[in-house]
Amino acid sequence: MAILDDIYQATATGNYKGIKALVKEAIDGGTAPHDIVNKSLSAAMIEVGDKFGSGELYMPDMLLAAKAMQTAMEEIKPLLKGKEAMLEKGTVVIGTVKGDLHDIGKNLVITMAEGQGFKIVDLGIDVDPIKFVDAVKEYKPQIVAFSGLLTTTLGNIPEHIKALEDAGVRDKVVLAVGGAPVTRDFADRYGIEIYADDASGAAKEFLKVVEN
Ligand code: B12
Hints:
This protein is of the alpha/beta class. 57% of the residues lie in helices and 11% in strands. The chain has helices at residues 2-12, 19-28, 33-53, 59-80, 104-115, 129-139, 151-154, 157-166, 184-189, 199-211; strands at residues 90-96, 118-122, 143-147, 174-178, 194-195.
């Protein structure tokens, strides 16, 4: 579909000024919001990351692409939250692991989980392990979710888990992890129950926890 290609290009080239109009056009024309997120926005971010990795694009290009995606999400977010959102099925504490500043994927997971009726406690980026512990004590969530995009800072995951164990709350929650470099194997290695490779998958896994 041409409009999905146009939104893909606008994201990949960081055209944050033009992207809102394109997203509106797509929605008015009946394009599903999920398709815009998966086929245009997320797909373009992968291309940008690959090109950054190979030296074809630079940091400002990544920042502009991120801004374009975030601008597009402002239009799409309200559409992803259905009437389910009124139900409050459970609580998820979520944050980007210590040392990591990436939050676009985390925010997408939040949007999808809110759309499924979860209350979200968003701890933000570069979250210290103790903040997760404090949030578990305060909000008594069913799920604690870590987002991580850097292979280096994913190395902090054991520290995050140990903090929960030391505080005696690890067994009171189901853990989840995700982010581009994360795999099922990685999750298994640390005994993390939930892994999903996209935001809809994450929300589906969260639902299984509260429906069991
Ligand atoms: C945008 C971006 C940035 C932006 C971030 C803006 C922001 N507000 O987030 C900026 C420009 C700030 C940035 C900075 C850096 N970045 Co960067 N960045 C990216 C890029 C291009 C896209 C990431 C993204 O938003 N993707 C779109 C979202 C939707 O996808 P996602 O995050 O994977 O999330 C989805 C799933 O993974 C899943 N998910 C996510 N979280 C969770 C959590 C749970 C619980 C579950 C179940 C699922 C789940 O659902 C999401 C939705 O479908 C990636 C490339 C890539 N391929 O990932 C590089 C990338 C991650 N960055 C990289 C690097 C190296 C950096 C820098 C170190 C660069 C530098 N030299 O300074 C810094 C790091 C700063 C820091 N300390 O964090 C590398 C990491 C390499 C590695 N192996 O570690 C990548 C892979 C680029 C590359 N190829 O080199 N970056």
